[in-house]
């Protein structure tokens, strides 16, 4: 068995070299009697419609050339030294193979074991020496840190900073599963966040999960991170990835990992994006559709209010529509005037658990974006994207229209239940 120095240094490259063999254009490694090979899985940019990187994955084979699951391979090390040996052997193998690959532009994503990162060794000096000797520019490396708890978060932060100082990009892997949380994003400031495959699966089966996915992508972008969605395996999941606004995608739908490195090809992104655009054209812009449908109803209700009618009388026709949950009136300070008018259909289905939230008389809605827009642009209908109403705790879309009443601004608001089918009827 090969033993590494303590502390580990660039000299360990000479100890690992005998574990590698070159056959034609491909390097293989040897560990505990298993043959190790590099498989590359492409990572695609949706906007660029092409490959922008590859994740390097290890593939192990027994003496009979039967595949050995990666989980079984990584259970073989019995000591920290063996863990570090396997981790570094894989990285050396991947970089050697990638250096012979024809792609001279795109990124190579390399996994680093959390046990190695958080081990007793202060810095991964081996890696800097590896890049120097192979001539692979650091800016083409993305170091992936798997989302796991660590006993020494400060050492993890220092190690990630070391990779950054080398000139590499850093990525958090498997975000959204297990122990992942935004605290690690704030502490490590990764360049890329890889969303776990479970998010794509859940989003394809649950509309709420899809909204959460969209929100996570938005928050990560606001944190200064590029976002990659892993595990995209179906056409529907590809549509979800495009709609969520992720930057990069990876998964079997686009390409399987391949040991035959030169056989990787890009999928038909032109067709995929054309399908996405067609779906959106068929659906139409729901905000525009809502605005066009309800504008005349709003103007009639406002005319009645200006004539002295009560809110309930003025909004009778609006409240009768099957998609409408409630109407309310707000003054120019953002404070609600009188009680909310609730449709009969919603009144029959109010959840008693949320009764403390029902009375919104004198509530202050000034911080709501739809109100600010309505006050800034009177006589122009404003429509929100779907959001969770604090009044009824359900998903809704709010329409708002500013108008003048006795020299002051007023805003008439109406909540539309989300996912209630066609407007007509």
From TrEMBL:
GO MF, any single term: cyclic-guanylate-specific phosphodiesterase activity
Limits of the EAL domain: 19-271
SUPFAM superfamilies found in the cross-reference section: EAL domain-like, Sensory domain-like
PANTHER family attached to this UniProt entry: CYCLIC DI-GMP PHOSPHODIESTERASE PDEF, SIGNALING PROTEIN YKOW
Name of the protein in question: EAL domain, c-di-GMP-specific phosphodiesterase class I (Or its enzymatically inactive variant)
Originating species: Marinobacter daqiaonensis
């Amino acid at each position: 068995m090969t033993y590494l120095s303590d502390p580990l240094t660039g000299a360990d490259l000479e100890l690992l070299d005998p574990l590698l063999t070159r056959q034609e254009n491909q390097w293989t490694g040897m560990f505990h009697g298993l043959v190790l090979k590099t498989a590359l899985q492409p990572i695609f940019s949706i906007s660029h419609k092409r490959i922008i990187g590859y994740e390097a994955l290890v593939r192990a084979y027994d003496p009979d050339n039967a595949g050995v699951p990666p989980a079984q391979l990584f259970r073989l090390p019995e000591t920290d030294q063996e863990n570090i040996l396997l981790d570094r052997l894989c990285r050396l193998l991947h970089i050697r193979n990638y250096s012979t690959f024809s792609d001279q532009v795109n990124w190579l994503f390399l996994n680093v074991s959390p046990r190695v990162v958080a081990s007793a060794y202060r810095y991964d000096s081996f890696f800097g020496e590896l890049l120097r000797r192979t001539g692979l520019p650091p800016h083409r490396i993305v170091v992936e840190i798997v989302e796991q708890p660590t006993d020494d978060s400060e050492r993890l932060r220092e190690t990630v900073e070391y990779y950054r100082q080398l000139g590499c990009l850093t990525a958090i892997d498997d975000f959204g599963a297990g122990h992942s949380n935004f605290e690690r994003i704030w502490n490590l400031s990764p360049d890329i966040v890889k969303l776990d495959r479970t998010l794509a699966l859940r989003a394809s089966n649950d509309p709420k999960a899809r909204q959460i996915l969209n929100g996570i992508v938005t928050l990560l972008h606001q944190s200064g991170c590029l976002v990659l969605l892993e595990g995209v395996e179906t056409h529907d999941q590809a549509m979800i990835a495009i709609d969520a606004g992720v930057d990069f995608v990876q998964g079997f739908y686009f390409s399987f990992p391949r040991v035959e490195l030169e056989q990787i090809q890009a999928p038909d992104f032109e067709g995929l994006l054309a399908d996405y655009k067609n779906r959106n054209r068929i659906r139409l812009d729901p905000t525009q559709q809502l605005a066009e449908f309800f504008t005349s109803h709003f103007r009639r209700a406002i005319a009645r209010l200006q004539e002295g009618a009560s809110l309930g009388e003025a909004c009778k026709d609006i409240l009768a529509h099957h998609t409408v949950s409630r109407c309310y009136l707000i003054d120019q300070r953002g404070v609600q005037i009188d009680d909310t008018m609730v449709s009969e259909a919603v009144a029959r289905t109010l959840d008693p658990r949320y009764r403390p939230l029902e009375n919104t008389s004198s509530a202050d809605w000034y911080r709501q974006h739809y109100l600010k827009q309505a006050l800034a642009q009177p006589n122009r209908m404003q429509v929100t994207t779907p959001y969770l109403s604090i009044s009824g705790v359900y998903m809704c879309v709010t329409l708002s229209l500013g108008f003048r009443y006795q020299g002051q601004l007023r805003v008439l608001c109406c909540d539309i239940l989300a996912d209630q089918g066609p407007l007509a009827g």
